[in-house]
Fold these 3 entries.
Entry 1:
Amino acid sequence: MNDSTLELIQLNLYQFTKKERTLAQYILDDPLRVIQLTADKIAEETGTSKAAFIRLCQKLGYNGYSEFRFALSRSLVATVPQSGEDPIKQITNTYSQFILQISSMVAMDQVHSLAEAIVNAKRLKLFGINRTALSAHQLRMRLGRMGFDAETVNDAITMVDVVEYLGEGDVCIVFSIKAMHQTYGSLIPEMVARKTKVILITMTPNNRFSDIVSQMITLPFISKSSSKTFYDDQAILFVFNEIILNEVARLSQP
């Protein structure tokens, strides 16, 4: 859609039902929070229903929540370069704006809880596949310099072996941008069953693991911001790692 999603909502408020207006106002009041929540959670927080929210999305011209969410993200941070715009300024401004979104999408108590889990872990594993393995590796290297032992696991076969000996007191941080079921569909439930604390760092809030992991943190999804401009989500993950490390360092002070 060419129009800003928020402008579209504002222009159509008059034709919404009472429940839809409640949802619309919730979105207008805090659009960044909407991006990080599931449709079920939005319905719960507004005292409405998931069906009412989906109807609202469809009235606005979207197929459902996922399409609406990505459109809302695009409208909040315009990433398509304007004709004649300095590409250096355009790219750095876009990354800056997405990095600034982290503070609106992640609460400090979430960071504190994650850092506490790292500090108190009996064994600490960091899972990542392909490009997210870089984020897991970066966190491991930085934690090692601070005196914390962690293992990065970056292939599915080794992950299966590792999961078999994890248990209570162990912590596994999973970096997965889309929280793909085909990759972690059996691994995460198995770790949960073994009472391993699983922390999912993702950019896709509406996933199959959100209700079973010990903690889920949702970050801005920069690569989904535009179909014409290509950005790398790892930059966002690297910055969030620095936030984690800062809190780990604070908790480790004597």
Entry 2:
Amino acid sequence: MIFNERETRRAYVMNAVRQMMTAARTAPKGKGVDIIEIAAVEGDEIKVLSDKMLEVGEEKGLKFFFRDANNILLAEAVVLIGTRQQTQGLNCNHCGFSKCDEKPETIPCAINSIDVGIAIGSACATAADLRLDTRVMFSAGLTAQKLNLLKGCQLVFAIPVSASSKNPFFDRV
């Protein structure tokens, strides 16, 4: 049997995306409480996300949303990692308030935010180990949040994934 890499690439990338999602799930958590949500967008749903990014970029007057909206169209999939907000009751002052019960609901718990960062790092490290092209995108994550793609999450980041001869998310204008 002979099979060409171009014919197997998509299956490889989608398997790798699943591994990235597992790496994000199993990443250490600040208090050991798992409130991370993870999903992947593929196919026509990437175009839906891209189109909405153009709208959000227009609303916010942020030009990099337009660049990123075009970039994700070159991805095989986009991994989304976010957190539901849950005060951890540590009274750690990392959010700027001395006690958790003083913190307004609109201010995220710093431990939750840190957990998302650790999960993103684990997912990206897995992608790098598998020699995939990625980039962490606030723009696509915020847009996914507006589309409620991770139900109930207030803090979402996106990681587009590609396997191509040159990283489409690196040299950007």
Entry 3:
Amino acid sequence: MGNRRGFMPGCSLPSYSPKNVELTVQYLKKHYPELSGIQKCCGKPTKALGQVELFEERFGSLVQDIKDCEIDEMIVACQSCMNTLRESKEFKTTSLWELLPQIGLPQELIGKAKDSDVVFSVHDSCSIRDLNGIHEGIRWILKELGYKVAEPEHTKDKTRCCGFGGMIVPVNPDVAKKVMDRRVKDFPTENIVVYCAACRQSMILGGGQAWHILDLIWGDVVYKNSKPPEDVLSNPVKAWINRFKSKGAIKRAIKK
């Protein structure tokens, strides 16, 4: 096993925030100068819909790209990507949320939110409810930044679906909305932090105020009167434009 690493932000994160993608790649590049970047779908949605042959085609194409880049370890920001990529034995797959506690946050960001009056509830992605290392990594990040956290009853390994799981939104949007509403009502605080951009959209559609963990790392300090970023994912055109911008952002960050 070599030491060449790659970073893959997934699909929803680049559609949500090119800035968060670029700043994350820039930071990883400081630790791993040989870093490669890949922006491509892992094929999980096709698998969820039962389109097995299409999934195998898309996943196979992604694995080939990773091999062509001679990547030994893929760092991923998306939980579905992580579960999917771990089906391949061609390389190691590591969650960004487990990696950051190992390499640390930028020194200037530690404690930046110590004076914030916000208490966040954490929504854990249901696809990794059995991976405690990721749960603890997210809470470590929040503690390092200085934010306070209140845990809902359904948290970590007992978390509930945000409403986007299993491609239910295009299949049965009414059921999806009920799941979103129920999940938001679970939280003891008005403000919610997630580590999946699609989950963030669910929390907003369910009536909550939600931030992605990368918003808290790279963005301004959040206070009680702060408003969360726009729900870009509900606008397909804006989401597509952001994905295009993210592709350019990854290229710029990798070349530096």
